[in-house]
Amino acid sequence: MKLKSLLDKEIPVFLAPMAGVTDAPFRNMVSKFGATAVVSEMVSSEALVRNSVKTYRRLTGGGDIKIVQIMGSDPQRMAESAKINEDNGADIVDINMGCPVKKIVNNNSGSALLKDEKLAVKIAKTVVDSVKIPVTLKMRLGWDNESKNFRSLAKQFEESGIRMLTVHCRTRAQMYSGTANWEEISDLKDLIKIPYLVNGDIKNCNDVKEALKQSHACGVMIGRAALGKPWLLNQILQKINYGIDVPSPSLEKQYEIVMQHFRNTLDFYGTEHGMRIFRKHFCWYSSGMSGASSFREQINHLDNIESIEKAVRVFYENHF
């Protein structure tokens, strides 16, 4: 089984799904360097069932094992979406019950489902029953500090047939503020038999070690820390499993990585749309480098490939 193979050999390091970020070009870059698995952008079950071209675009690429995350509030629509993904070659379907974004929550999806345990469990079971491939689920601690129900839900999800959980160790009310409380999920080890990953505020190897120690999770899921560093997950994977220190790429190599990622994005989306999308990646790649602010401002005002490539080349050459 594909999911079992991801968890058996080593401490797993997954790339978290991030809307507008973990598209096929980015997932392919992370997979190229090495990670246990990468998860697609969150896909709307309604849009997928309606045959949205934009939605289908989010399902392509992303490594040897294809994990697609679906989002919605209607059990039957979610099941139909899962089946479509299975038919299109997905190896694992992941259910989103953790997204805190207002427009998602207002549609009673994402972390809003944590407020309705009955509906959340019904969605989980309906999706599980609709496909033959493993179904996993990502969630938060609860809606707010007064309603942390992740323990109750975790048990019910396990009984529904969910094969693995990922817990972002914040409530929805926290959004991404404050500090993720890894220790709070430590007792899941005694409550459920299925594996679970810890997520939130994990930026480096030391964070991974501490998060695993506090949470008793079997592995980690890393999101924002990988922005501008598609090599990070492999560095962590090698260090925590084998004690191997993998150095970050040289600036010369980073320049090559940025340009390859840029060209892959243009090929995937087309020139005009690809240039717009990649501006945020230029910001992330250049973060912490001298002159980054001026570089970002310059990039944001350029509107053709040649001028952008020249600006990137000059910026990096000034740091070689």
Written description of the protein model:
There is one protein chain. The chain has an eight-stranded parallel β-barrel, surrounded by seven helices. It is globular. The protein folds into two domains: 2-242, TIM Barrel (Alpha-Beta Barrel), CATH 3.20.20; 251-317, Non-ribosomal Peptide Synthetase Peptidyl Carrier Protein, Chain A (Orthogonal Bundle), CATH 1.10.1200. By secondary structure, the chain is of the alpha/beta class. The protein has helices spanning 2-8, 24-33, 45-49, 53-57, 75-87, 102-105, 117-130, 150-160, 188-191, 205-215, 232-242, 251-269, 271-286, 292-300, 305-317, and strands spanning 13-15, 37-44, 67-71, 92-97, 135-140, 164-168, 196-199, 219-222. The model has no long low-confidence stretch (mean pLDDT 93). Helices cover 48% and strands 13% of the residues. Helix 14 (292-300) runs antiparallel to helix 15 (305-317).
Q: Topology as H/E string?
A: HEHEHHEHEHHEHEHEHEHHHHH
Q: How many structural domains?
A: 2
Going by CATH, the homologous superfamily of the largest domain would be Aldolase class I
Overall spatial form: globular
Computed Rg: 20 Å
Number of helices: 15
Amount of helix: 40-55%
Summarize model confidence as the mean pLDDT: 93
In the CATH hierarchy, the architecture of the largest domain is Alpha-Beta Barrel
Q: Numbering strands along the chain, what is their spatial order in the largest sheet? A: 1-2-3-4-5-6-7-8
Question: Which blocks of ≥5 consecutive residues have pLDDT under 50?
Answer: none
Number of strands: 8
Q: CATH topology of the largest domain, anyone?
A: TIM Barrel
**Biggest beta sheet summary:** 8 strands, parallel, barrel
